[in-house]
Amino acid sequence: MRVLTLGAGTVGHWIAELLCGKRHDVTVIDIDPERVRQINSELDVQAIQGNAAHSAVLFQANAAGADICLAVTGNDEANILAASMAKAMGVRRSIARTYSPVYHDSSTFDYQRHYGIDSLLSLEHLSALELVRSIRNPEAIPLEHFARGMLEVYDTEVSPQCSSVGQRLREIQLPAGVRIGSIERDDEVWLASGEDEIQAGDHISLIGIPAEVTKARSRFHTASKRSKRQNVLIAGGGQTGLHVARSLPHGEFRITLLERNRKRCELLSKLLPDVTVVHANANRRSVLEDEGGGATDYFVACTGQDENNIMAGVEARELGARRVLGVVGRPDYANVVGKLGIDQVVSERDVAARQILGFMNDGAVISYRPMPKGKIGIYELEVFPDSRVTSATLTDLPLAGRCLITAIESNGFVRGPKANDQLRAGDIVVALIDHESRDECVALFKNP
Amino acid sequence: MKFADFINTDSIQASLTATTKEQAIEELVQSLLDAGQIEADKRDDIIAAIMKRERIGSTGIGRGVAVPHTRHPSVDKLVGTVGVSIDGVDFDSLDGERVQLFFLLISPPEYPGDHLRALENISRQLRDETFCRFLKQSKTADDISQLLQEADDNQFATG
User: Fold this and answer.
1) Of B70, B73, B92, which is closest to A107 when you measure between CB atoms?
2) Over the stretch B103-150, which tens digit does the pLDDT of each residue have?
3) Where in the cell is it found (chain B) (predicted)?
4) Which residue of A has its CA nearest to B111?
5) Cβ contact B110–A411 (<8 Å)
6) Domains plus CATH for chain A?
7) How far apart are CA B104 and CA B152, in angstroms?
């Protein structure tokens, strides 16, 4: 594919390297001549020096002929502007990285739609989601691309005490927006239908928004109830720390957040009324001791600096924190952190890579991820104008048994599908598709 | 766009009892529910969405006015209401003043243009001091309805 990367900083350089390695045709634009010189000498890319938000520069980079544009400079506004222009000039899919959470809130102004951008990515938000997920639902399969990371798939075993054993799926009341996607029994996996009966020992996949999926899961698997509220100590109150603190349900977790900037602390305590915000430097051992770093169930290091995160993580581990997680960006550190006793590391580059590789698909497929056991895939599909799926209600489409639509995103809002729902051009769906029927099913979403 | 296009007069509250930001939003959303303008099972989700927007930045635009709003897929047309608090509510407004006058708006996501036009209409009309003062002094929902009607007939705002 022809890829246009805007920005050759840490993230941009790495994306270019990754995509070159996968034999894509990469063009990079950066405003800094030194970076352009460097990337030209290191990678097999075409690098252009200039302002990516200038039409002449985009034109020179042949934006019109590119399949995908990834705007990943360090400036939110430049990314939005350039991604919007590239899309208007003919790029098939345009993606902008944004740091500020403001761009992801559409209640006053829908940035994504107004600027015609296909996806606004916040790597800090996605990193936070990954940290939150491994605290709440460690075994969940994330669907990062979809609905700004709002959906997840959870594989759960049906316990014999479960009241739904022997019931047909159509008879089971699930929390709003949660669907059973697939059933696995005796090494067989199939797409769930309303007529399927649940048996003890089945593995079912639940799909929906995280909080509701957690509720649904406790219905089928009774043993996993947490007995008491757990403690989480977060070091660093930047965007990632803020997202983590905000996304953990406060009924289940008691959260303390350490931040060394006083002004930021004042803002954080306003934004997070249920969180204990402490003005302190998480890199001081005495601070970690005082704030209960030793007794905490989870320690999350996200100060914004790899070295500080590693140091704080090591201290917390030594003091006795039960599980230590952190953000570490440099790939050459990844090897070391495990040895230092840090349980899980999230890197913005890996998050970005997974996102972007997910976008490197043709036609209606926006992203794809295989489910465990390999027989079924989770697809994010774009509904094309005049495609077959727009012509009839979901029940009347030839999807049964081959393609299960589990969620529909329309105008930035996600809903669970109903039998009489009809898809419209521009909608995005998340569907489980049987590998054997993949091509036939995907074709229904494309132009005839 | 006029107030009559999106303000539901049955849900107007001339004397809010709320003493906090969240209570004020709850009270206004509840009155839209009581007037049959939103679905009962969407109430909490709508309140959460409006609160989420408030956390990014207060919709208190100064001079005792706030315009809490969100877009929500459960409504199929713009719905809004007006509330007046006699003692005012701390709403983290830019000028630090307590908010006495609330315009709450919920819009369907399909029509971003209408949403912006409704917000624009509210802001433009509220630039008029007299209109604001009269609204804050209103004793009944009918008084408020009538003021909105007069504003729609261009009796206040100059631009």
Assistant:
1) B70
2) 999 999 888 889 999 999 999 999 899 999 999 999 999 999 999 999
3) Cytoplasm
4) A411
5) yes
6) 2-121 (3.40.50.720), 230-348 (3.40.50.720), 355-443 (3.30.70.1450)
7) 18
